[in-house]
Amino acid sequence: MAARGCRTSEVPGASQPGLLTPPVGGVARAAATAVMYPPPPPAPHRDFISVTLSLGQSYDGSKSWRRRSCWRKWKQLSRLQRNVILFFLTFLVLCGLLSYISVADQWRAVDGRSAEERKARPADPPVLPAPQKADANPENSPGLLPQKPQRHFRRGPPNLQIRAPDKDSKDRRQDDTRRRDEVVGDARQEDSTQRTVVSWRGAVIEPEQGTEPPSRKAEGPPTKPSSQAPGIQNQPASPNERQRAVIDAFRHAWTGYRKFAWGHDELKPVSRSFSEWFGLGLTLIDALDTMWILGLKKEFEEARKWVSKKLRFQKDVDVNLFESTIRILGGLLSAYHLSGDDLFLRKAEDFGNRLLPAFQTPSRIPYSDVNIGTGAAHPPRWTSDSTVAEVTSIQLEFRELSRLTGSKKFQEAAEEVTRRVHSLSGKKDGLVPMFINTHSGLFTHMGVFTLGARADSYYEYLLKQWIQGGKKETQLLEDYLEAVEGIKRHLLRRSEPRKLTFVGELAHGRFSAKMDHLVCFLPGTLALGAHHGLPADHMELARALMDTCYQMNRQMETGLSPEIVHFNLYPQSDRKDVQVKPADRHNLLRPETVESLFYLHRLTGERKYQDWGWEILQSFNKYTRVPSGGYSSISNVQDPLNPQPRDKMESFFLGETLKYLYLLFSDDPALLSLDAYVFNTEAHPLPIWAA
């Protein structure tokens, strides 16, 4: 049973019969294996340790731990997380760039200050010390130190020197000479030279040859000749009664401004607060030369200190090119000429440079607005046009800035506008439309002609540029004379029943008997032209228009002119000559009437013009004076019981109105002589250039 499937056999030598044996071959192989190949010894057990080194990280012994790259971690973030991180990083980069630019500009300004001062070193100007009644101790006057003789290098025209017309002028020159050190602290030592002396209200300016610094020679001399302008008289008589009334009015207005609006643009006297237009201390700058002329030393020095310490033009603000030029640039230039203080010229040059981007247009006709911090210029939001008056009434200031600094870029930019307007079509016998496009350089809104808002000072500056430049620029004179003839032919009418001569408007061939109070600049301009040799009938027309402007005030219940009047043209009517619409009966404390009264009195000597101005000053005091300080424009000149104050004192009330009243009441023709100075349209006197 056990041997099923295998064969059996006996092994030789086996002693036990019947024993089962395996096949011989199988037994031999088994025996051989047991003897020749013993089993191998077991292999030794080996252990291995894996170590991973990673800086800044620890190994926690976990099998799931692995090193991840920054890129893998970034990819594992959600799209929202990545966008947030990218936005934050971009924001940080932009903030860093803006901070760098701001800091770099400040350092450039600091580093370049001395160089700019060397470039902007003014001509030797008239220096007028304080009135005799002022405190002689310079420590009591901020910003003033005893003056040593000094030399100002001329940047083109000869220096302006003021001397007294009497025999003792040389002694007074030596006694009254002073030096103005900058309140900002930059002490400059300069060579000595003899300087003439004048009082606060002026003297006679005579030329003295100066030296042009090498830094200006590369730019070349100014395009216009130097000035030789007499100043205001050395030792005038004490202010008369009417002039003292003007000084009192100014001090009252200044008290309100100083108390409630110091350093801001305009005073709101009723609410005892302020309003901002440019944020540049507009009223303060506009009033600088008025304070000097009125002899208000304390107020002037306080204002000068503010200009030195606080007036900064590096700010992100849009300014109107025209308004900022006539008020700020004109005010600084005038203050420089009257006081001889370099501070005002440096500020003027800085501001002029910031206005130049406005001229960068396809037509070279400037935009109406420019950002003085960024240099970005643009037209008004509602149009691409500028007004003709605005672009043609900045030339006096820019030309004078070039004459003083020796840099022709200011004059060239402004005079290019004059040349382009001169060659345009669309005029009517010298009369110009009100608007001009900054892209095409062409007139727009054709067929509308006025001497009121948006066109008025175009005609004024034609004459005054001709006078400023020494009566050499015949193109300006021709345009002015043609315009006067156009006024006579198209705009001049007489009212009923008193036959008042007035200047109306023309719209597409249709005459309107509307006359802005702004047009009352015209009598003074016509009289000034006649004084400088233009036809005598200009003076006759000036007298007639002056009567009309006085009646615009006289026929109102408050004695103050409204903003706009309409004249009666019908003889059978029972109406007065002067008619006022409800929307036009406000008064903004404007100067145009008293401006022309000043010219007419100065050039004719007739006392009635002073009397008319005195009536107007009394009306201002009665209906616009605010007890807490300041004067307010009013809404209704026909209601003396309730003139309705508008709670705003325009800067030109101090810069123009009170200045012209003070000059009107003076009987001294040498006080800012019209043969020596030309007034810009904001009443800032600039010297007439000598031949």
TrEMBL record:
Transmembrane segments: 84-103
GO cellular component: endoplasmic reticulum membrane
Biased composition (Polar residues): 225-240
UniProt membrane topology term: Single-pass type II membrane protein
Domain of life: Eukaryota
Annotated GO MF terms: calcium ion binding; mannosyl-oligosaccharide 1,2-alpha-mannosidase activity
UniProt-listed InterPro entries: 6hp_glycosidase-like_sf (IPR012341), Glyco_hydro_47 (IPR001382), Glycosyl_Hydrolase_47 (IPR050749), Seven-hairpin_glycosidases (IPR036026)
Cofactor(s) for this UniProt protein: Ca(2+)
Record-level GO BP terms: carbohydrate metabolic process; ERAD pathway
Residue stretches in coiled coil: none
Catalytic activity entry: N(4)-(alpha-D-Man-(1->2)-alpha-D-Man-(1->2)-alpha-D-Man-(1->3)-[alpha-D-Man-(1->3)-[alpha-D-Man-(1->2)-alpha-D-Man-(1->6)]-alpha-D-Man-(1->6)]-beta-D-Man-(1->4)-beta-D-GlcNAc-(1->4)-beta-D-GlcNAc)-L-asparaginyl-[protein] (N-glucan mannose isomer 8A1,2,3B1,3) + 3 H2O = N(4)-(alpha-D-Man-(1->3)-[alpha-D-Man-(1->3)-[alpha-D-Man-(1->6)]-alpha-D-Man-(1->6)]-beta-D-Man-(1->4)-beta-D-GlcNAc-(1->4)-beta-D-GlcNAc)-L-asparaginyl-[protein] (N-glucan mannose isomer 5A1,2) + 3 beta-D-mannose; N(4)-(alpha-D-Man-(1->2)-alpha-D-Man-(1->2)-alpha-D-Man-(1->3)-[alpha-D-Man-(1->2)-alpha-D-Man-(1->3)-[alpha-D-Man-(1->2)-alpha-D-Man-(1->6)]-alpha-D-Man-(1->6)]-beta-D-Man-(1->4)-beta-D-GlcNAc-(1->4)-beta-D-GlcNAc)-L-asparaginyl-[protein] (N-glucan mannose isomer 9A1,2,3B1,2,3) + 4 H2O = N(4)-(alpha-D-Man-(1->3)-[alpha-D-Man-(1->3)-[alpha-D-Man-(1->6)]-alpha-D-Man-(1->6)]-beta-D-Man-(1->4)-beta-D-GlcNAc-(1->4)-beta-D-GlcNAc)-L-asparaginyl-[protein] (N-glucan mannose isomer 5A1,2) + 4 beta-D-mannose
A Pfam family that the UniProt record links to this protein: Glyco_hydro_47
Binding positions for Ca(2+) per the UniProt entry: T681
Disulfide bonds: C520-C549
Subcellular compartments: Endoplasmic reticulum membrane
Annotated spans, Disordered: 1-20, 115-242
Keyword Membrane: yes
Compositionally biased intervals (Basic and acidic residues): 164-193
Summary of the function given for this chain in its UniProt record: Involved in glycoprotein quality control targeting of misfolded glycoproteins for degradation. It primarily trims a single alpha-1,2-linked mannose residue from Man(9)GlcNAc(2) to produce Man(8)GlcNAc(2), but at high enzyme concentrations, as found in the ER quality control compartment (ERQC), it further trims the carbohydrates to Man(5-6)GlcNAc(2).
Family the entry assigns: Belongs to the glycosyl hydrolase 47 family.
PANTHER family, A to Z: ENDOPLASMIC RETICULUM MANNOSYL-OLIGOSACCHARIDE 1,2-ALPHA-MANNOSIDASE, MANNOSYL-OLIGOSACCHARIDE ALPHA-1,2-MANNOSIDASE-RELATED
Protein's recorded name: alpha-1,2-Mannosidase
Lineage of the species this protein comes from: Eukaryota, Metazoa, Chordata, Craniata, Vertebrata
